[in-house]
Amino acid sequence: MRLLSLLSLAAGLTTAVPVDNVFPRTGKSTSPANQTLSSTSFNLYWPPPIGKCQKPLIRKEWRQLTTTEKKQFITSMKCMATRPSKAPKNLAPGARHRYDDFNSVHIIMSDGLPQKTGGIHLVGFFFPWHRYFLSLFETALRTECGWTFGLPYWDWSQDAISNLPLKKWPVYDPVTGFGGNGPLLTPPQNATYSWPYLTGQTGGGCVENGPFQNWTINVGPGQSTALNTRCLKRGLNPDTVQWLRPERVGRAMLAENFTEFDARAQAPPDVTPETTIRMMHAAGHYVTGGEATDYISSTSEPLFWLHHAYLDKVYSSWQAMKPAKRLSDIGGPSLPLSPESPQVTLNTTLDVLWEGEKIPLSKVMDISGNEHDGFLCYRYTI
Ligand SMILES: *[C@@H]1O[C@H](CO)[C@@H](O)[C@H](O)[C@H]1NC(C)=O
Ligand SMILES: *[C@@H]1O[C@H](CO)[C@@H](O)[C@H](O)[C@H]1NC(C)=O
Ligand SMILES: *[C@@H]1O[C@H](CO)[C@@H](O)[C@H](O)[C@H]1NC(C)=O
Ligand SMILES: *[C@@H]1O[C@H](CO)[C@@H](O)[C@H](O)[C@H]1NC(C)=O
Ligand SMILES: *[C@@H]1O[C@H](CO)[C@@H](O)[C@H](O)[C@H]1NC(C)=O
Questions:
Q1: Could you say which ligand is closest to the alpha carbon of residue 190?
Q2: What is the whole-number distance in angstroms between the Cα of residue 194 and the centre of ligand 2?
Q3: Is 243 in contact with 276 (CB distance < 8 Å)?
Q4: Is the dihedral of CA 356, 358, 363, 365 positive or negative?
Q5: Beta carbons of 301 and 223 less than 8 angstroms apart
Q6: Contact present, 345 and 28 (Cβ < 8 Å)
Q7: Which ligand places an atom closest to the C-alpha of 32?
Q8: Cα–ligand 3 centroid distance for 124 (angstroms)
Q9: Domain Tyrosinase copper-binding, which positions (predicted)?
Q10: Domain boundaries, the chain
Q11: What is the fold of 4-24+34-380?
């Protein structure tokens, strides 16, 4: 059912995006006040086809994939850990396979957060960098491992209000998902480089069921890319669910400018370990726990990609509300925990090491690739 959301008018949607691209998620008509203040029963998508992006790759929510597609995706993901590494040995000596390569890029590029000297977190280019990184992983899955669609995303806000226990969340299903928890370790182990440690993990050990039971990680934890072969650890954490509710998404969607959007999703102005962990970005890692709480090698967790695809969906939906302004709106510090550092601009370089060219940030501002001489061409389902 297509309903015109009054929110779109309140938010001043420009004519570049037809207003009927705003759908209430549930199809239920709620009052604008409720939509604005307490939920995101609205969702936006980029209207395809648009400009030079006539055949966008479609990124679907995990639940929207058929069982066959889910199994194909998991097979492609596991395939990445069977293809030999292409990473330069001096940069990633421990990398043995293509999945390690991408993990190593994230590990190396995360360097410098506590020292405030660099890295891809708590900076203004966090969203564009991860958007670029995801597109390269999506390409690798497709060209090297047989995946034929866009990267799936995981809308955890649906789970957060489902009243299901974590082990019943579809992404943790051992047959049609990514498998569940590891066993509870006593005393509870703090994941290495978890920043900070959050109590409440119900597991912490090696994943015991599902397709990633014997997943082999060779790089990390933390900043090391030396060979360190180990299992995937998980500790599902129900305490984080409160920070994944749709209201959190709605708050970000209602931000008036990019720095405010970024602050509501990733890095609040009073950024401290305690405030960061309660943001939806961090909470979407901490809910899975274990290796996912290591902000440096969280890429070891296959759900990294689905979580970040959802964040990118929220970001692109926010942009789509006022494309004329928001496809060029960027800012925030270029160094973490350093509000005084030079502001990120459309010219800021995004570096993904050996996995792709260094590009100016502007090129990934538009997921339809039309603005700023871009090259991306995908859209998200609602
Ligand atoms: C918002 O939704 C709640 C629950 O659905 C309802 O009780 C409340 O009256 C609504 N508020 C407004 C302003 O419509
Ligand atoms: C985990 O970290 C917390 C907070 O820093 C600390 O109190 C606790 O002792 C740590 N536990 C272990 C097993 O290291
Ligand atoms: C993981 O290894 C164990 C022991 O070899 C085996 O029983 C199990 O089937 C394997 N699981 C998967 C998903 O490959
Ligand atoms: C962005 O919006 C916030 C909150 O409304 C405001 O405080 C800030 O000055 C704005 N920043 C820019 C760069 O416009
Ligand atoms: C971006 O870089 C280009 C080429 O280096 C330069 O011409 C342009 O002025 C820069 N723009 C901004 C906003 O810094």
A1: 2
A2: 10
A3: no
A4: positive
A5: no
A6: no
A7: 1
A8: 42
A9: 121-138
A10: 4-24+34-380
A11: di-copper center containing domain from catechol oxidase (1.10.1280)
How many whole angstroms from 347 Cα to the centroid of ligand 5?
A: 6
Least Cα distance to 100 among 355, 337, 306, 356 occurs for 355
Contact present, 234 and 180 (Cβ < 8 Å): yes
Is the beta carbon of 317 within 6 A of some atom in ligand 2? no
DSSP 144-186: HH---SPPPB--HHHHHTS---GGGSGGG-TTTSS--PPPBPS
pTM score, whole prediction: 0.87
Which atom of ligand 1 is found nearest the CA of 33?
13
Distance 348 CA to ligand 5 centre (A): 9
